[in-house]
Amino acid sequence: MKPRDRVLTALSHREPDRVPHNLRLTRKLRERLRAEHGDGTEIDEGQYFDHDVRYVRIEIPKPPDGVAEPDWRPEPTAEQLAACTEQTRALQQRGYAVCGAYHAGIYEHLKKCYGDVEALTLPYTDPARLERELDWITNFKLRIALGYANSGVDIVWIGDDLGAQRSLIMSPEHYRAFYRPRHAHTVEQLRRVRPDIKIAFHCCGHVTPLVGDLIEVGIDILEAVQAETMDIGLLKREFGRKICFWGAVGAQSVLARTSPEQVMAGVKRTLEIMAPGGGYIAAPCHTLTEEVPWASILAFHEAIRRYGAYAISADTPALAGRAHAVQTPR
Question: Alpha-carbon distance 165 to 228, whole Å?
Answer without folding.
Answer: 8
